Amino acid sequence: MTRPEYKYIGKNTVRKDARDIVQGKAKFLDDFSLPGMLVGKSLKSPYPHAEIVRINADKARALEGVHAVLTWEDVDQGYKFGWPPHKPVLGRRVLYVGDAAALVAAETEQIANAAMEFIEVEYKQLTPVYDGMKAAEDGAPQLCEMFKNNIVPPGYPPFQRDGPFWHLVRGDVEKGFEECGYIAEDVVSFDKKAAPLSPEPPGCIVNWEGDLTFTVYATSQSTFILKIINGTVIPGININAKTFNVGGSYGNKQSLTVPTIYGALLSMAARRPVRYFETKVEQMIIHETRLGSQVRAKIGMDENGVVKAVKALWFVDTGSHCNATQGQVGVGIGEAQLVMAKCPNWDLDTNIVLTNKLPAGIVRGYGGQELNSCLALLIGRTMREGNFDPIECFKKNYVSAGDEYTWRDGRRWRATGVNYVNAIEASAAKFGWREKWKGWGIPTSVSEDGRYARGVGCGIIGNADVGEDQTECYVRIVPDMADDTARVVMQLDITESGMGQRSNTAKMVAEVLNIPYERIELTPPDSLVNPSSMGLCGSRGTITSGRAVTEAALDAKRQLFALAEPFLEVPPDFMELRDYGVGAISRPGKWVSWKRLIPPFLTLTGYGKHLENFSTPNFFIVLLEVEVDKLTGRVRVVKMLGGTDAGQVIDPATLEMQCQGGIGSASLDTAIFEENIIDLPTGRPLTYNMIEYKWRTFNELPEFDTVMLSSQFDTFLFKAVGVGEISGGAAASACMSAISNAIGVEVKEYPATPAVILKAMGRL
After folding, report:
1. Measured distance CA(388)–CA(443) in Å, rounded
2. pLDDT tens digit string along 139-167?
3. Can 18-28+469-610 and 128-194+289-388 be said to share one CATH topology?
């Protein structure tokens, strides 16, 4: 296909927010306040599982400067977190260390903290459970009377309109295994519930507007998701959500159920706006983490290295309550099928389980990464049985046009127009895979004294959510009063959380209307004034927002051509947009301004939409090399490469930033040292700050390279697919594979800390 030449698409342009960010003028929620605003705080349970026998807040309420104190006795017990709603917002039972026993709104943070010291609470401790598999056993402590064996019912209506989807059954699994030449079976754990920990802590300012109507100013990356998920917590609640710039989200700052609902209850009680923000420590101990995953699986391949049968049971640890985990499970099942797309026989079942850990929720990777990280180790072990080169196996097994899969909605979809073999080969070549790969369990190199061994590994991941959720956009042409130029206003609900997508959509509209990119303006993210859009969540954005904005711009273009026909006396096929007007292509002198075509004091509005479609999966591959100190068990990532084919690249710098951003916020270090550690006797988190929770600092980043192909996929006008949340998502499994190859022993427990590695080598 001939690659079109664009003015803006495929070229780097200055982001619309760049100057304000560099100059410190960009507005974040922390820069905003409301008159009379109070500070909200929560009194946190010191126990992982307990019942409140008695609570007395009289002294706290009497403290000067305190405007509201709420306990479970003051809050409707029908107000519940989770889906289906099951955990009282402020209940008599607390389910994890940090769970709220009371809420306070005061004039200052100091007064609020002082007030909490005066609240008297008597607890009756109950037996906790921290392991997802054990929580589902008969006799395990029950966290919620609604759910037998702590197993949450499947199904999430916004995603699964045809009914619950949690169990993939296809073909004949037992017969499939009979046809396999190589089989691996084991239990793999990815259950340490890593914390995404975005740089800007979660928070919101909530103002009660009367009845059950609230205006919420939040650090959320999606006003619409915040509105709909919190809409199920308090029956009848009406939320108008607004956001500013968001200082990073990593998918983790969307619904913000705890800050939003706590802020709403306090604002309604105090009749004042309430600012409810989490500190960095609170972000570590009470905010949503990744899902915990334990997978019992069996995978079989034929003599050619093609997966023929998969049987697995996935235990999903959702912590104290299940927010929208059913949707995450649906995506995880879908992503597994993309990696093993040629497999005809499946029995992949799931259990969502409550435990006495802090809640899990929406995070970059959205559930698929957790399952992929577990299954990938068993796929690798099956490859090892057949002595297959993983690069060749990935080429044979990964989804391509014509393959069918069941996505999160429970419906069957057929992949159209995609093939990522070229991207796999190009990535392997640039990394030097052929030279470095020595075989399974064989190091690439070993130091002379035998202490340091290097190994390589690779992982692959994809997601069909690039087409998720309906999206709408209005493009309004506003003629200038003084001359024949015009401004173009895009009404599209996108919060800028670091990805540059607001600027990229503006580029698309500028391309269609053939006007300077600088003349495109975007409405602020606000659920009240913008049409429906989930915003930049998950892998979506390029296709969903892209199609909506280009269709809106094309609609405006069609209207302009129709209005110009009497002036130009040529049909629309012979017209073009130029210089804020419509001209005849073959008659340069024939031209009419938009200002003349649009009635005075009015605007011309184009409308566009994207309808949910899961037929275009995206792709990302990670190849890396590690060095393992066999004496101490310490792992050092030496080199890393991320590869993709994003279709038509919209902005090269933005795409490269997505690839690089996946190093830390997606999964690399969840394979080595990122984990939430709980002190089992007390249930208290030990990784409660940025010193105790192990993170990679900037000066420890490995050498990182990228491969970014730009095929012309048949998606929408600009032939783009994008990358989104999966960038770096396969790094965890790639890293574990590299470690196993370096030391010659398989490691199957995430993260591969020094203790885990030494134990695997029989030295601990």
Report:
1. 16
2. 999 999 999 999 999 999 988 999 999 99
3. yes
